[in-house]
Amino acid sequence: MESVIRDPSLAPEGHRKIEWAAAHSPVLAAVRERYLKDGTFEDLGVAVALPVEAKTAYLAVVLAEVGARVSVAAPLPSVVQDDVAAALAERGVAVFANSEGSPEDADRWMELALEAATSAGEAVLIDDRAGLTRIAHTTRRRLLAHLRGASEETTSGVVRLRAMEAEGVLEFPVLAANDARCKHLFDNRYGTGQSTLTALMQSTNLMLGGKRVVVLGYGWCGKGIARYAAGLGARVTVCEVDPVRGLEAYADGFDVLPALEAAGVGEVFITATGNLHVLGEEHFGRMRDGAILANAGGVDVEIDVSWLRATAEEVYEVRRHVEEFVMPDGRRLRLVGGGMVVNLTAGDGHPVEIMDLTFAIQALCAHHLANRAASMEAGLHPLPPELDEEVARLKLEAVGMGVDSLTEEQRRFLAGWRE
Amino acid sequence: MESVIRDPSLAPEGHRKIEWAAAHSPVLAAVRERYLKDGTFEDLGVAVALPVEAKTAYLAVVLAEVGARVSVAAPLPSVVQDDVAAALAERGVAVFANSEGSPEDADRWMELALEAATSAGEAVLIDDRAGLTRIAHTTRRRLLAHLRGASEETTSGVVRLRAMEAEGVLEFPVLAANDARCKHLFDNRYGTGQSTLTALMQSTNLMLGGKRVVVLGYGWCGKGIARYAAGLGARVTVCEVDPVRGLEAYADGFDVLPALEAAGVGEVFITATGNLHVLGEEHFGRMRDGAILANAGGVDVEIDVSWLRATAEEVYEVRRHVEEFVMPDGRRLRLVGGGMVVNLTAGDGHPVEIMDLTFAIQALCAHHLANRAASMEAGLHPLPPELDEEVARLKLEAVGMGVDSLTEEQRRFLAGWRE
Amino acid sequence: MESVIRDPSLAPEGHRKIEWAAAHSPVLAAVRERYLKDGTFEDLGVAVALPVEAKTAYLAVVLAEVGARVSVAAPLPSVVQDDVAAALAERGVAVFANSEGSPEDADRWMELALEAATSAGEAVLIDDRAGLTRIAHTTRRRLLAHLRGASEETTSGVVRLRAMEAEGVLEFPVLAANDARCKHLFDNRYGTGQSTLTALMQSTNLMLGGKRVVVLGYGWCGKGIARYAAGLGARVTVCEVDPVRGLEAYADGFDVLPALEAAGVGEVFITATGNLHVLGEEHFGRMRDGAILANAGGVDVEIDVSWLRATAEEVYEVRRHVEEFVMPDGRRLRLVGGGMVVNLTAGDGHPVEIMDLTFAIQALCAHHLANRAASMEAGLHPLPPELDEEVARLKLEAVGMGVDSLTEEQRRFLAGWRE
Amino acid sequence: MESVIRDPSLAPEGHRKIEWAAAHSPVLAAVRERYLKDGTFEDLGVAVALPVEAKTAYLAVVLAEVGARVSVAAPLPSVVQDDVAAALAERGVAVFANSEGSPEDADRWMELALEAATSAGEAVLIDDRAGLTRIAHTTRRRLLAHLRGASEETTSGVVRLRAMEAEGVLEFPVLAANDARCKHLFDNRYGTGQSTLTALMQSTNLMLGGKRVVVLGYGWCGKGIARYAAGLGARVTVCEVDPVRGLEAYADGFDVLPALEAAGVGEVFITATGNLHVLGEEHFGRMRDGAILANAGGVDVEIDVSWLRATAEEVYEVRRHVEEFVMPDGRRLRLVGGGMVVNLTAGDGHPVEIMDLTFAIQALCAHHLANRAASMEAGLHPLPPELDEEVARLKLEAVGMGVDSLTEEQRRFLAGWRE
């Protein structure tokens, strides 16, 4: 099936970016050598829905190298780098991704990716916010029979899949790759943490030291953002709905306030909740002139941007990736990255090394599904812990570090209780 | 039943300490007002096995105040403050705890506490490292019928209880209080972290800045110790058996090495694994002259002190709580707190505010067991999450902070998947 | 005099950037209102040699607004943003700056700026690495009589001026603006720290957590870099020539090693010494494959890039701002920003708020020189401390904070000694 | 002259403490070997006024070992450890120090120490808060002729000596040992920082994580306290009179408020200003119930304890070293360490390694004065920088680290200005 991309001539720059990603992906490389080359992927379809940038591209390349029929769809036009899409198409992957498309196009791309992957046999899915899974259960139900299962990348996706499972409508097994410890402990915390703040600093050229930064949500993403913001000298306020997480934030040295109270004191606001309208009309009304807003969470509706656009007297770009909304009362609110996930729209996404871990997990998930899906029930499944540990072990090896094993005596000690 | 304590005349100092603990326990006080006063504890026995110091004592006092027949046993003589024991006895609690007892006495004390609590009816247990539970299942099986269940305080205890459950020998329901988020996220991390380093600094008068500190174990305890040690300027090396935790330590900025390699580079070693002989003959053999050793974990055998005592040419106290072992090759190893849990033997245990959380949880566990044990199966149970959240909410209130609630719209959003 | 710029049509983007800088420069705005508008600058020339980007531009604009005849020269083509240069020219400033010029052009630009500033009377200089001062003392000595004095922005410049003073060749008074506490404590530490790491992260997309980062130089710049790198999870090694600074780095929790030893262990190297060839042939020879190199110091020769270029078998760009040098033995070294000051060549320079402080100081220095130079001796002078304090006070006011004053009783206490 | 101490029988415990200090003083040991043994001290008097604890004692022992006639006076009874005093007396040092003495006794002790040191010839002074120097210029002026000079240990002392110099009454040369970089950068920052917080934590058993800690003064002491408090999870507010320091605190991520505003928000207050009545009636009036107060500064009047004692309705000890003051309105304020320097009165003073640096400096100062005082003018002098650097070099060597030297090429580069 022919790729849908913006401009094939951008491929050279895309290849260079993919090479950089490859050079910093020792774990995925080791996984390929030790696990993926066993023939599992020969002639198997793999449909991938993920932001189209260098690191995802390298995962697709690796899967293609071990024999898979790979198709890639962008879940949103805003997360497409056209040069990378072009390079990927040149390497024999079916690509459906164009940064100038509309959000509606994305559903169409995912449909095409599902069709491409199942065009000559069965397929497994590597999914983002359950997009491919949703399409397969709605507008492309006829393909369901060809899909062995899916592996889900995001927290938001897992939430949705649990909702599907609860409704009894999920028809194939899904591995919660997101819940792999090597994924959520690293990607959501260190990855989102570093890349969100980098995107903010490069977009605004503002200093973090001394700034009052409000982090909404203290899950792994919020924890990472708060910690690095503090590491760069910011004064951090956390907003939460879970009181135990709120208490952790307090013990970590942060102020913990209801969002409406925080709205009045913050200079920078970063949402990381996976929920909608965490910042909305009421909050905007209390913010000080010049407040900076950005979203680091998995859904694009955490900040109620529609309300902002509808209400502002004027909106213009004040720096690349930074829009200024002039409120009727004259205050100016500044939105970075359009309210979409800021480390992708105003940055290069997670650091390479983080994605190396994540995609090593994803590759092992796809491998596991390809071999075992037949014996797995429909529904959400965790990744077998030994695979999780293997990825961590490979990474520690790659950086010259290592862990111990329990001695037999210690194992017995842990198993006993009579002292 | 008459208390077994060292010296009743020490009571005044003990009362003063208990008052200090009470003054810093707003959460337990709020729990007492809102939950414990409902008559549940009237004439119910509560046997408590916990270190006997001011904060535990205040828990016992609160339970007695709401009508319980409370008995307290020290699980080890090394964790008894005699003044507190004396004060507690004066307040009508049956106390079995004497800092000058032998480890064998401790089993006897726990037997006495079980008998006292069941002397006039049924009882629930608040347990430490499953000590009371072990006694009840071995030398005091005849009391089993009077025990509604137990609440377990420690990670080590939960490990043991799982072993008992796996063997099918656990005969009453146990609430894993340790696994309450308000317990293990705070007590093990912030509590052990701060108090272990305080004990080390006050015992040794050494500077942490620049020191190479080796933390063995990167569970919640180890994480807290490593983080505060780094916060005080130490260069931290972590040893682990779980590669994913090892990788977290790496991403947190620490060196991660097998323990034998770390043995050669460390200046200070702190064990926090809950396992035995984490530091033993082989490690001692590689340590540099002057190395400092301490145990922060729940079991007293993490450092192989027996081997040290048997092997050293000379052992003498160089500062209060610090013993110097002169090895046959002339190197001197310095052990703080005798290898027992250092924040208790060479310090005052966890900070008061931490124990306030923990004991609020314990009080609610006891309350829950007292009311519901009849309908619970034998085996380990988690604390109902709403109680956990209530404790966190009460604490945030006490410090003037607060969290949000989900709006109806947000609740629906999280439950949906069709976008 | 006509401006020398690349493309006047770039002005709109430049104006937008300058507006952003203006919006975040409350201190310079306050200084303008309270001090600069007193007529001092009417018809006075001010020649400015500074990187041509939004924040510098705003300083030039402010000086022009209060009546000065302002000319701006870039000290190097690599630090010119052409859109800002165009916007500045449109606002009536004489600009000599073109990013596509050669390093030789820069001397010519500075000559032109000196001539423009003195074309209709006397002038003061705002200088960068003593560039204008050097030109005035060599190829444009005839202008010396028209120059009241200079204010110097950089540490490297102050070092050079001291050398000139020591040789007895400095012929006008210079204020060491760099040594103002509001300058060097903030600009060199927080400004260079944050912006250097931001530039590195956005250029390389690499993760700092766990990385072994070698910081060469532990002056204010190096301290800032080391601290923020650690705040982002890096493991930091410091190299120094001053043992007391080395010892500070040790107490701050960093490894301290001679540069040749550090060369073998580092993954990322950042120079911040103000000296030449801090990383050279010997160091390159010991580095691991894939090592990343960047310079954050004031001089472009800290990393011996000439040797790298002459020796590498191949050099190509692997990402924007990142060149890969393939060594004869196959190892690849990656240079960010060409060895020039990385936060300018691969980033947007210091955060706006930092430059607001710095340029408030510079504006006050120019004001001071304009009024007092006649009574000052040739040579280096410090800024009067009360001006330094005034800038800090204005900034604290702007962020809603404040300090105390000594009471009369306290003043007396500090002045007494008889107890 | 006979020593004035509390109880000679306490000596054994004192010897043990001194041995511990000796074992952790590699720098002073190296200085003794390389510098002090040259005969300079033979038959020279050295009068030392310093807190009498193990580390000071070891300095006195070292000086005695190289031939000096050493006398030691405590500048205050509150800083005397009687066991150390006894041990020192046994080792042939004249000791005037008794923890049960009155503040008035201290002046008498210093007089005795001056007399003992000059009893058989000339002497140099090692002074604390200029105590010996004050006595020598007032009640013991007749000894002035025998005193070659003094070395001053504290910031407060240097302030006083400057006052004396300004009045023209200082009659011998004084080396500002406090201003040695190896002294004030380490002792005041890391030493006071760690030991103050350790003393607070062990005295109160309170958790720092989440606490609002107000640090009054952001000099080196305050900086160290603030940084470690933040490292332990506290939320820090800083009060200052110098706006530039205030601005540093802001950029470091702390709130900066006038003390009266901070009084209303703090939970823990630590003074470190060297000034009087930094916390007084007005501040106490605004504090919340249960506020904790401690002084880490060099003078005992930073907290207006006299007012507290005069005003409180009740005062009693609630824990060792913690007094509770019940205010007329019922609020309770808790003072740790009596308002005297808390790391000495409620702790063991600075960490050993810090004092090793400080006393290596002091020993070199005494050595320098002994040899050069004749050619030095009366007044304050800095320590020659090469001695400062030598101490740092010896310390880095002792911990296995090291620094570089400038190459000849680099030295030339720094000296040039013509590019």
TrEMBL record, chains A, B, C, D:
Cofactor binding note: Binds 1 NAD(+) per subunit.
Keyword ATP-binding: no
GO biological process, alphabetically ordered: one-carbon metabolic process; S-adenosylmethionine cycle
Molecular-function annotations in GO: adenosylhomocysteinase activity
Names of required cofactors: NAD(+)
Record has NAD as a keyword: yes
Keywords: NAD, One-carbon metabolism
SUPFAM superfamilies: Formate/glycerate dehydrogenase catalytic domain-like, NAD(P)-binding Rossmann-fold domains
Domain S-adenosyl-L-homocysteine hydrolase NAD binding, residue spans: 188-349
Pfam families, per the entry: AdoHcyase, AdoHcyase_NAD
Signal peptide: none
SMART domains registered for this protein in UniProt: AdoHcyase, AdoHcyase_NAD
GO cellular component term, pick one: cytosol
Binding site for NAD(+): 219-224, 240, 343, 350
Family assignment from sequence similarity: Belongs to the adenosylhomocysteinase family.
PANTHER family, alphabetized: ADENOSYLHOMOCYSTEINASE (PTHR23420)
Protein's UniProt name: Adenosylhomocysteinase
Organism: Rubrobacter xylanophilus
